[in-house]
Design brief:
The complex is a heterotrimer of chains A (184), B (1005) and C (451). Chain A is α+β, with helices and mostly antiparallel strands and 184 residues long. Chain A contains six helices and four strands, in the order αβαβαααβαβ. In chain A, 48% of the residues lie in helices and 13% in strands. Chain A is rod-shaped and about 80 Å long. Chain B is built from 34 helices and 38 strands. In chain B, β15, α17 and β16 form a beta-alpha-beta unit. Chain C is built from 16 helices and no strands. Chain C has 451 residues and is mainly alpha-helical. Helix content of chain C is 72%, strand content 0%. Chain C starts with a helix and ends with a helix. Classes of the chains: A alpha+beta (184), B alpha/beta (1005), C mainly alpha (451). At the A-B interface, loops of A face α28 of B.
C-alpha cells in the first residue's frame, strides 16, 4: 500500500475535504463546528462571506493599531520638525516664526499616513504568519485548485476529537467531492 | 593661489623665497627645465603646452624659451606667487598699513589713461596680485567714482589674449634682436630724416620731454598723433572762437540751467566722472525744511546718450541739425550769426523757452557740446557762454591739456602720404591700431607696406601689428611707471604694484628711452622729470605725496581769459543746410568697446549697452518711423552704403534715435566680438570717411534679406509700464512737493498674523537706497560687482537664453508719453519677508541677524525655487559650468569671494565680505562700524553716488535719513516682502512753458 | 475509501464560459500563452524610446540642467511640467482602488489592478524628474530628513520638502496596497504555472498564500484600511503639488484654488490614461466580457465630471485675477490668453480640456471606444499643456517688465517630454506580460455571486 507507506514515512497533518463551491464549504464548516471540532482550517479561491465568523476568525482589531500608528507617526513628525527648527537651528527663514505649525502640519499628516500604511502591511503579514515557504496543506491532492475553483476544509490531527477513520467518514458525510489524508 | 608664506612685500620688493626643491617657487627657466619630473609637471598642469612640446620635438630649454611668455599667461610663472614688483619704491595708498598682512588688501594710487587723458585710480592688490580698480577720491577726474571701462580694465592685465611675444615679420624673435635691428634703422638716417613716430594723444609730461629729447637728437624726426575718437572739432572750434587752442573745464555744481548740444558730459566727455558727480549733486532732492532746488537739463541731441536720458527735455534732432539749433539759439540771444530756418525740426516755442530760461539764469547757466559736433557749433557755444556770462563761473578756460593739440586726422593723412611716397624709413607706432581705425579714405594699412622698418608697440596682436615688421608687446598701465594729465591739467603718476607679468613687454617710456639711447629705467626717467620741474626743497616728500595721493600737487592749470575773435559770424561762416535726400549716418564710439581696443574684454563685451541692453554685438540704431519706411526690424541685417563703401549691420529699432538718421558704433568687426565668430564684421570704420568723421548725409540703407541673432538682456524694452505702481516712480519736483507721498505703495505692506521675526534683532541692520534722480545708467556698478564678486562671463549664446550672471542689473524703461528713458539698477532687495528663503527646501538661503538675505552655496542643491519666487528676478543660477579655468584668471579673482560651481544659485550679497572685514577692523578698535565705512562695490563705483549703503538701525546714518524721505519707496512693496533696498523716486524739473509739462507727467504718478 | 481517495475528481483543462475558474483562465491566459508578436513589437519600440530617454538623462546629469531651455526668470521647464503630469496620471489608480472601494463600486475591481499598476509605473516616471531637474542631483537626499553630524534638516516650510515626503509616502502606500491585493492572484499563478522556474517565481512573490479563511479576512480588513488612508493621501499628494505654486508669490501661481484644482486635474488625466490602457487591453486580449462597455462608460463619466471641475478652475483663475484687483495678476491673465507667444498653448489647453470633453455628455460617444480614446488622448495633451502654461508662462512673465523672458525649448527639452513615455510603456508591457492585469479572485467572486 503506497499510501500506507507514505503515512508511515510522514506524520499525518490532518484530513482534508474538497468542495464544489462556497455555499457547501460554508455549510460544511458549520456542521464541523457543530460536531465539536475546533482545529479546523478552510481554504477558498476567494473570500467566502461569513466563513470566518463560523470559524471564529472574525475579530478585527486592526483599526485600533492603525489609529495608534496615526497618532504616533504624527507626534514623532511634529517632534522632529520642532527639534530641528526650534531647538537645533532657530534660523530666520523669510521672517517666519521658528515654530511654524501651519507648515509643519503637512509633514505630520504624511508621516501619520506612512506609519499607518506600514502598520497595516506588517499586521497583515505577521498575524497571517506569512511569508510561509512550506505548509502541509499544499500536500493535499488537487490543492492547487484552492486558488482557482475548489474549496477545502481540513481537520487537523491536533484536534482533541480527531480520529482518522471517524473524521474521514464525517467529512465524507458532508457532500464533499473527495476526502484525503494530508501529511505534514 | 599663492600660499601666504610665499607672498612677498611689494614695498621692499623682496623676491619670493626661492626653494629649488619646492615644485612651487622657481626663479628662471633653467631651474624648472632641470627638474626631472618636468614632463609630468607640464603634462599635469599645462596639458596643451605639453602636447605642443611633444609635437614640436623641442628640448625642454628651448621649448620653455619660446613658450615662456604664453606659459606665463597660462599661469606658469604664477605657480608660486605673483611676479616680484619692481625694485623702485612704490607707496601704498593711505587707507592701509604699510606692510602686507596676508588676507588684507593693499591699495596703490595710479593713473589710467584713455584717449590720452588720465583718470586717477586705486589698485587693490591681494598678496601682490592686483584684482580690482576703483576711482581715486583725491583725483579730480574721478572723485572716487569710476566707469565700466575703468572697472573692467583690470581684466585686460590678465587677459590671456594679450600679445606676449616680440615678433619680427610674424615670427618669434627676441627684444635684443629688435634693438640691434632698430639701431641699424636709426643709423641709416642720422638726423632722423624718415624717422616717424605715431602715438595716440599724449598728455604725459614725461613722454613729452622724451619726445623733445628725441627731436633734439634727430631734428628731422617727425611726431604724429592719431586717435579715431579725436578731439579735432574741439580744437578747431576753440581756434575759430578764440584764435587759439584752449581747454574748456565746466563746473556743473554752479549750473542751474544746462543745455547740451550733443554734449554727452555724463559719460563720454573728458572729465565726465567729475561732471556727473557735480550734476547729480544738483539733482538729488533732500527735504530738510527749506525749499529744494534742482538744476534743469535740456538736451538737443542726435544719437541717444546718457545725458539725453537724464535730461528734463530731450529734443531729438539729426546730428546735422544741431548746428542749426546752435545758430538759431545764438541769434535768439543776440549773437550775430548766419542761418536760415524754413522749417525747423523743433517748435519755435521750444527754442524761445530755452533761450529765456538760459538768460534768466545768466551766470549760472551752461551750454556744452561734444566732440562730434562741428567746429562752428563749438565756436557758437563758446560765444553763447560768453554772452550768458557763464565764463568764469560755470565755464573756465585753460591752456590745452594735450602736449600738442593737432588735427589728428590730417596728421595721419600727412604721415600716410609720406609713407606711400616712400619717405618713411622707420615708423614707430606706440599704441593705437591705425590700420583698423583709420578713415576709409586714408590708406594707412596699404601704405605700411612701403615702410622698410616699422614697429608696433601694441597690447594685442591686432591689424596693425600684423602689418608691421616688428611687434613689441605693450605693458599694461598697472605694470608701468608713467604719468598723465587729467581734463583740468592735473598731473598724476602711474606706479606698478606688480612687476611685468611678461619680461617681453615694454612701455612707451621704455621705447622712447631706447630710441634716445637713454639707459635709465622708466622709474628714473619719470622721477627725474618731476625732480627737474620741482622748485621746492623737499622733493622726497613731494614725490611721496604724489605717489601716495595719486595726484601731483599744484599741477592743475590756471584759468585763462581768452578773448573771442571780433568777427565771430565770419569765423563761423555761413550756414549751409545739409543735403536733404538720403539718410544721415552718425558714427559713435561704442560705449564700452570704445574705438575697438576693448573688443577682447569679455566683461565689457557682455555688459549690456545702456539703451538696448545688447551684449557681444553692435547694432545700427534706427527710429521706428524710419525703420517702417525701410521695412527693417530689430534683428534684420541691413546694408549700409556710404561714399561707395558698403558694410553690413544688424538693425536695432530704438525710439530714442532721431528720425531720418541712423547711428552706427565704432569698434566692432574685431577679434573678440560675436560678429567675428559668426563670420561677419560689423566694422563702421569701413564707411567712415575722413571728411565726415562723426556724421554725414546720403547714406543708403537697404535690407540684406537676412537676420542676425542679437543677444540682449531685456526683451521688454518699450513696455508700457504698470499704471498703479510703475517700477520707476517719476514726477516733476513741483508735483512732488504738492503730493509728497505719491511714490510707491502706501497700503499695509505687512499683512500677516505672524509675529515679526526681525523685531528682536539687535546690532547692525544693513540697508540700501538708490536715488533714481541721480542714476545715469552708466552700468559701472555692474562691472564693479562682477570684478568684486568673481562673476563669470557666460558668452553670447547663454545671454541669448537669458542666463547672464550680473548680480546687479540696470533696467531700462522707455516712456512713450514724454519720450523719456529711465534707468533703474536692481540688486537683491534683501527682503525682510524674503520669499526665496521660505521656499528653499534645504535652507540654502536664510536670513542673517543683520538682515542680509544669505545664499549658502555649499548647501544649495539647485531646485531654483527661490529664483522662481523672487519678484525681482535678481537671482542668478549656474546653469552650466561657467567658471573660466584659465590659470592666469585665478590671479584676478577676489580671494574673499568663493567661486560658484555648476548647479548653484547665487545673488547679490551686499558685498558681505566687505562688511565682515570692516567689522573685524571695528572690533579690533573696539568701536561700531562708522557710517560710510562699508560700501558695496556698486556703491563705490557709482560716479554719481546714487547708491547709498549703511546701517538702517542707526537713525543718524545717511541711508536712514534717505529712507525717511517722502519720495523713498520700495519696489513692488505691495507684495509685502518689505525690501531692504529702496529707491528714491525720479524727480524731474521740466520747464512749464514746454509741451511735456509737469501736469502731463504727474498724471501717471 | 481508497476508491474515493484514488478517484480523481477531474477539472476540465478548458473551462467554458460561466463555469468557475473560467475568468482565471481568461485573465491569466496572456501570461501563459506564447508571447504574441504585437507584444514584442510594442515592447521593442518602447524600449527603444526608453534608450533615447536614458541618453538624454545621462547627458543632462553630466553636462547640467543648462541643456534645457530654462533661464532667469523662467527657471522651471519641462522637468517640473513632466513631474506634475506623471504624478497626475497616477492618480486614477489610487482613486479607483481606494475611493471607489469605499463607495462599494464593484465595477471598479476590473480597473483596479492595472490602474494601480499604471499608478506605480507613472510614479516611477514622475519620481525621476525632481532628481533630474536639480542643479546638483547628487545631493537630492538633502531634501529628506536623515541623521547627520551637523543636524542639518530640510526646510519644513518649503513646499518642495513637502513634495518629497508626500510623493514618497504616496508611492510606498500605493505599492503596499497593490501588493497585498496581488497576493491571491500570485498564488493562483503559482498553482497554474507548469514551468518549474515560473512556479518558483510566483511562489516567492505570493509568500505562500493558500487562501486560508483567516487570511482572507485579514486581507479584506487590510484592504479597507488601506483604502481609508489612501483616500486622504491621494487627495493630499496633488494638493501639495498644487501648493508648490499656491504658496509662491508669482502672479498666476498665487491662487488658493490650486490644490483642489490640481487634484481634479490629476484624476481627470488619470482616468483618461486608464481608459486608453483599458481599451488597449480589451483589444489586445479580447477581454470584452471582462472589461465591459459599461465599465468604459463609467470611467468616461468620471472624465467628464473631473473635466468640468478643471474647467471651473480655469474660470476661477479669471475671476480671481479680476477680483484680486492686482494689476500684474490681471495683466498676466490677459497676456496668457491673448499675448504672444503664450496664447496658442492656452487655447489649445482650453480646447482639449474643456471643449472636446463636452462630447462625453452623449451616451453614443461614451460607448464608442475609438472616439472615447481619441478624446482621452486629447485630455492627456491638454493636461500637459496646462502644466506647461502654469509653469513657464507665469515664470517668464515675471513681476518686473524688464525681467521678462520667453521659455524656448531645446532639443533636450523635447527628449525630456517624449522620453518618459518610453519608460512608462516599457514597464507597462512587462507588467501585463508578467502579472494578471485584472484581479482574478475578485472577478471569480463577482461571477460566483451572479449565478
Amino acid at each position: 500500500m503506497v499510501d500506507a507507506a507514505q503515512t508511515k514515512s510522514r506524520p499525518l497533518f490532518g484530513v482534508m475535504a474538497e468542495f464544489e463551491d462556497g455555499e457547501s464549504l460554508l455549510e460544511a464548516a458549520e456542521k464541523t463546528r457543530e460536531a465539536g471540532y475546533t482545529r479546523i482550517q478552510a481554504y477558498s479561491p476567494y473570500r467566502v462571506e461569513g466563513l470566518a465568523k463560523v470559524l471564529g476568525q472574525d475579530g478585527n482589531i486592526l483599526p485600533w493599531f492603525v489609529l495608534a500608528a496615526l497618532i504616533v507617526g504624527g507626534v514623532l513628525a511634529y517632534y522632529m520638525q520642532y527639534v530641528t527648527d526650534v531647538v537645533v537651528y532657530p534660523i530666520n527663514i523669510g521672517g517666519r516664526p521658528d515654530e511654524a505649525w501651519q507648515a509643519f502640519s503637512i509633514i505630520v499628516f504624511e508621516a501619520a499616513i506612512l506609519f499607518a500604511g506600514l502598520t497595516i502591511l506588517g499586521f497583515m503579514f505577521l498575524r497571517s504568519n506569512l511569508p510561509l515557504p512550506y505548509h502541509p496543506a499544499f500536500n493535499a491532492p488537487n490543492f492547487e485548485q484552492a486558488s482557482q475553483t475548489r474549496f477545502f476544509i481540513c481537520i487537523e490531527v491536533t484536534d482533541p476529537q480527531f480520529d482518522l477513520d471517524e473524521t474521514t467518514s464525517f467529512l465524507q458525510s458532508l457532500d464533499s467531492l473527495s476526502v484525503n489524508e494530508v501529511e505534514s | 593661489m599663492p600660499s601666504m608664506s610665499e607672498t612677498e612685500n611689494p614695498n621692499n620688493g623682496a623676491h619670493p623665497p626661492s626653494d629649488e626643491s619646492s615644485s612651487k617657487t622657481w626663479r628662471n627657466i633653467d631651474e624648472i627645465a632641470a627638474r626631472e619630473d618636468f614632463e609630468d609637471f607640464l603634462k599635469e598642469n599645462y596639458p596643451r603646452e605639453h602636447v605642443i612640446m611633444r609635437r614640436s620635438g623641442l628640448d625642454r630649454r628651448s621649448f620653455l624659451k619660446i613658450m615662456g611668455a604664453s606659459l606665463t599667461l597660462s599661469g606658469f610663472a604664477l605657480q608660486g606667487c605673483a611676479p616680484s614688483p619692481t625694485d623702485e619704491r612704490i607707496i601704498p595708498y593711505v587707507r592701509v598699513p604699510e606692510e602686507v598682512i596676508p588676507g588684507r588688501p593693499l591699495y596703490f594710487a595710479s593713473t589710467m589713461v584713455l584717449g590720452g587723458y588720465g583718470t586717477g585710480v586705486v589698485i587693490e592688490t591681494h598678496e601682490g596680485r592686483p584684482h580690482r580698480l576703483e576711482g581715486n577720491a583725491d583725483h579730480p577726474a574721478s572723485l572716487g567714482g569710476s566707469n565700466a571701462i575703468i572697472q573692467a580694465n583690470v581684466l585686460e592685465l590678465y587677459n590671456p589674449d594679450r600679445a606676449v611675444e616680440v615678433r619680427n615679420a610674424g615670427n618669434l624673435s627676441s627684444f635684443d634682436e629688435f634693438v640691434s635691428a632698430m639701431q641699424g634703422a636709426m643709423a641709416v638716417s642720422g638726423d632722423g630724416t624718415g624717422v616717424h613716430l605715431l602715438t595716440e594723444t599724449i598728455t604725459s609730461p614725461t613722454v613729452a620731454s622724451q619726445i623733445e629729447a628725441l627731436q633734439e637728437a634727430m631734428p628731422n624726426a617727425t611726431w604724429h598723433q592719431y586717435e579715431p575718437v579725436s578731439r579735432d572739432n574741439i580744437v578747431a572750434g576753440a581756434e575759430l572762437a578764440f584764435g587759439e587752442v584752449v581747454n574748456s573745464v565746466y563746473d556743473f555744481s554752479q549750473a542751474s540751467v544746462i543745455l547740451s548740444l550733443d554734449g554727452d558730459f555724463l559719460s563720454s566727455m573728458d572729465g565726465s566722472l567729475h561732471y556727473a558727480r557735480d550734476y547729480a549733486a544738483n539733482r538729488k532732492v533732500f527735504l530738510d525744511g527749506e525749499e529744494p532746488e534742482i538744476s534743469r537739463l535740456y538736451a538737443v541731441e542726435s544719437a541717444p546718450s546718457l545725458t539725453g536720458a537724464a535730461a528734463d527735455h530731450r529734443i531729438k534732432v539729426k546730428a546735422s541739425e544741431v548746428e542749426l539749433f546752435a545758430r538759431a539759439l545764438a541769434a535768439e540771444l543776440g549773437i550775430e550769426t548766419d542761418f536760415s530756418m524754413d522749417e525747423a525740426p523743433w517748435d519755435s516755442q521750444t527754442l524761445t523757452a530755452i533761450a529765456e530760461d538760459l538768460t534768466a539764469n545768466a551766470g549760472e547757466s551752461l551750454v556744452v557740446t561734444g566732440a562730434w559736433q562741428s567746429p562752428a557749433v563749438h565756436a557758437l557755444v563758446h560765444a553763447i557762454n560768453a554772452e550768458l556770462g557763464n565764463v568764469g563761473t560755470t565755464v573756465t578756460y585753460t591752456e590745452p591739456v594735450e602736449v600738442n593739440p593737432v588735427n589728428q586726422t590730417e596728421d595721419l593723412r600727412t604721415l600716410t602720404d609720406a609713407m606711400s611716397a616712400g619717405e618713411v624709413g622707420a615708423l614707430f607706432i606706440f599704441g593705437g591700431n591705425p590700420a583698423f581705425t583709420a578713415p576709409n579714405d586714408i590708406e594707412f594699412a596699404s601704405a605700411l607696406a612701403n615702410v622698410p622698418f616699422s614697429v608696433h608697440l601694441s597690447y594685442y596682436n591686432d591689424e596693425t601689428s600684423e602689418l608691421c615688421t616688428w611687434q613689441i608687446p605693450q605693458k599694461h598701465f598697472i605694470e608701468t611707471w608713467g604719468d598723465a594729465r587729467a581734463f583740468d591739467g592735473t598731473a598724476s603718476l602711474m606706479q606698478p604694484p606688480i612687476g611685468p607679468l611678461l619680461d617681453t613687454t615694454r612701455s612707451e617710456i621704455d621705447m622712447l628711452a631706447l630710441m634716445t639711447g637713454d639707459d635709465r629705467s622708466s622709474f628714473d626717467i619719470v622721477q627725474a622729470y618731476w625732480e627737474a620741474n620741482y622748485d621746492g626743497d623737499d622733493f622726497d616728500g613731494f614725490w611721496r605725496r604724489a605717489l601716495h595721493n595719486g595726484v601731483i600737487e599744484e599741477t592743475a592749470f590756471e584759468p585763462m581769459e581768452p578773448t573771442l575773435v571780433a568777427d565771430l559770424a565770419g569765423a563761423v561762416g555761413s550756414y549751409e543746410a545739409p543735403q536733404a535726400e538720403g539718410l544721415e549716418v552718425i558714427f559713435q564710439p561704442d560705449p564700452y568697446i570704445y574705438d575697438g581696443r576693448f573688443a577682447q574684454n569679455s566683461w565689457l563685451q557682455e555688459l549690456p549697452k545702456p539703451f538696448n541692453k545688447l551684449t557681444w554685438d553692435t547694432a545700427m540704431l534706427v527710429n521706428p518711423v524710419t525703420a517702417r519706411e525701410l521695412r527693417l526690424d530689430t534683428g534684420n541685417l541691413a546694408e549700409l552704403s556710404y561714399g561707395g563703401e558698403i558694410v553690413q549691420m544688424p538693425v536695432w529699432v530704438l525710439p530714442e534715435q532721431p528720425e531720418g538718421s541712423v547711428t552706427v558704433y565704432l569698434g566692432y568687426g574685431k577679434e573678440g566680438g560675436a560678429d567675428v565668430d559668426a563670420g561677419f564684421a560689423f566694422n563702421a570704420y569701413a564707411i567712415r570717411p575722413s571728411g565726415n568723421m562723426w556724421f554725414g548725409q546720403g547714406v543708403e540703407v537697404s535690407s540684406a534679406r537676412r537676420s542676425y541673432t542679437l543677444a540682449n538682456t531685456q526683451i521688454e524694452l518699450n513696455f508700457e509700464s504698470y499704471e498703479e505702481h510703475p517700477p520707476v516712480e517719476t514726477a516733476s519736483l513741483s508735483f512732488f512737493l504738492e503730493n509728497l507721498d505719491f511714490a510707491g505703495y502706501d497700503g499695509d505692506t505687512d499683512k500677516t498674523l505672524l509675529p515679526d521675526y526681525n523685531a528682536d534683532y539687535a546690532g547692525y541692520q544693513w540697508g540700501m537706497t538708490i536715488d533714481l534722480s541721480a542714476c545715469i545708467g552708466c552700468n559701472a556698478c555692474m562691472v564693479a560687482c562682477q570684478s568684486e564678486n568673481n562673476s563669470p562671463s557666460v558668452g553670447k549664446t547663454e545671454v541669448e537664453r537669458g542666463r547672464e550672471m550680473h548680480w546687479i542689473r540696470v533696467d531700462r524703461y522707455y516712456d512713450a508719453d514724454d519720450d523719456s528713458t529711465k534707468f533703474q539698477p536692481v540688486p537683491c532687495m534683501h527682503c525682510e519677508q524674503a520669499p526665496c528663503e521660505q521656499v528653499c527646501p534645504v535652507q540654502a538661503t536664510v536670513h542673517s541677524e543683520e538682515g542680509l538675505n544669505q545664499m549658502v552655496y555649499n548647501r544649495c542643491v539647485g531646485t531654483r525655487y527661490c529664483s522662481g519666487n523672487c519678484p525681482y528676478s535678481v537671482r542668478r543660477f549656474n546653469f552650466l559650468d561657467y567658471v573660466d579655468d584659465t590659470p592666469i584668471l585665478d590671479e584676478l579673482r577676489n580671494p574673499n569671494v568663493s567661486v560658484r560651481s555648476r548647479g548653484v544659485m547665487e545673488k547679490c550679497t551686499y558685498c558681505v565680505q566687505r562688511i565682515n572685514s570692516a567689522r573685524i577692523d571695528a572690533n579690533v578698535e573696539n568701536r561700531r562700524i562708522n557710517d560710510g565705512e562699508v560700501m558695496p562695490a556698486c556703491a563705490t563705483a557709482c560716479p554719481t553716488q546714487a547708491i547709498v549703503f549703511g546701517d538702517i538701525a542707526e537713525s543718524t546714518t545717511q541711508v536712514s535719513q534717505l529712507k525717511a524721505q517722502p519720495h523713498n519707496y520700495g519696489l513692488l512693496a505691495e507684495t509685502g516682502v518689505r525690501p531692504r533696498t529702496t529707491y528714491l523716486a525720479r524727480l524731474t524739473n521740466p520747464n512749464e512753458n514746454l509741451h511735456a509739462s509737469a501736469e502731463a507727467e504727474s498724471e501717471e504718478a | 475509501m481508497a476508491t474515493l481517495r484514488d478517484q480523481n475528481v477531474g477539472i476540465p483543462a478548458e473551462r467554458e464560459a460561466g463555469t468557475p475558474g473560467f475568468l482565471v483562465d481568461v485573465i491569466s491566459a496572456p501570461i501563459f500563452r506564447n508571447t504574441p508578436a504585437w507584444w514584442w513589437i510594442g515592447f521593442t519600440a518602447s524600449a527603444g524610446l526608453l534608450g533615447v530617454f536614458l541618453f538624454a538623462v545621462v547627458n543632462i546629469l553630466i553636462r547640467g540642467v543648462g541643456l534645457w531651455g530654462i533661464q532667469i526668470p523662467a527657471i522651471w521647464g519641462v522637468g517640473i511640467v513632466n513631474f506634475i503630469f506623471w504624478i497626475g496620471i497616477g492618480h486614477a489608480g489610487t482613486f479607483i482602488s481606494a475611493v471607489l472601494l469605499l463607495m462599494r463600486q464593484h465595477w471598479r475591481s476590473t480597473f483596479s489592478r492595472f490602474a494601480e499598476g499604471a499608478t506605480l509605473i507613472a510614479l516611477v516616471c514622475a519620481g525621476l524628474f525632481p532628481l533630474l531637474h536639480l542643479g546638483r542631483p547628487q545631493y537630492a537626499y538633502w531634501l529628506f530628513p536623515y541623521p547627520n553630524i551637523l543636524e542639518l534638516n530640510p526646510n519644513w516650510r518649503s513646499a518642495l520638502a513637502w513634495d518629497a515626503v508626500a510623493v514618497s509616502v504616496y508611492g510606498l502606500v500605493s505599492l503596499f496596497f497593490w501588493y497585498i491585493d496581488l497576493l491571491p492572484d500570485l498564488a493562483a499563478m503559482r498553482d497554474k504555472a507548469e514551468n518549474r522556474w515560473v512556479k518558483t517565481f510566483y511562489a516567492i512573490l505570493s509568500t505562500g498564500w493558500r487562501g486560508d479563511s483567516s487570511h482572507w479576512e485579514r486581507l479584506h480588513n487590510a484592504a479597507y484600511m488601506f483604502a481609508a488612508i489612501a483616500t486622504p493621501l491621494v487627495i493630499s499628494v496633488h494638493s501639495i503639488v498644487g501648493l508648490d505654486f499656491a504658496i509662491a508669490l508669482t502672479p498666476g501661481w498665487h491662487h488658493t484654488i490650486f490644490p483642489p484644482y490640481f487634484v481634479a486635474g490629476a484624476v481627470f488625466s488619470g482616468f483618461a490614461a486608464v481608459i486608453i490602457i483599458a481599451a488597449g487591453l480589451r483589444r489586445a486580449f479580447s477581454w470584452q466580457e471582462v472589461i465591459t462597455i459599461d465599465h468604459m462608460e463609467n470611467a468616461a463619466k468620471f472624465v467628464l465630471i473631473t473635466g468640468l471641475m478643471v474647467a471651473y478652475g480655469y474660470g476661477i483663475e479669471w475671476f480671481a485675477a479680476w477680483y484680486l484687483d492686482h494689476e500684474m495678476e490681471w495683466i498676466l491673465t490677459i497676456q496668457r490668453a491673448f499675448g504672444q507667444p503664450y496664447a496658442f498653448f492656452y487655447w489649445a489647453m482650453i480646447f482639449f480640456n474643456v471643449g472636446a470633453i463636452q462630447a462625453l455628455w452623449f451616451k453614443r460617444v461614451r460607448r464608442n471606444i475609438p472616439l472615447l480614446v481619441t478624446i482621452c488622448v486629447g485630455v492627456l495633451i491638454g493636461m500637459w499643456l496646462e502644466r506647461y502654461v502654469i509653469v513657464t508662462v507665469s515664470l517668464g512673465y515675471a513681476y518686473l517688465p524688464a525681467a521678462h523672458e520667453y521659455f524656448s525649448p531645446t532639443i533636450w527639452d523635447w527628449l525630456t517630454i517624449f522620453g518618459p513615455f518610453g519608460l512608462f510603456l516599457t514597464l507597462l508591457f512587462l507588467f501585463i506580460r508578467i502579472l494578471p492585469s485584472i484581479p482574478m479572485y475578485e472577478a471569480e467572486l463577482l461571477a460566483s455571486e451572479e449565478h
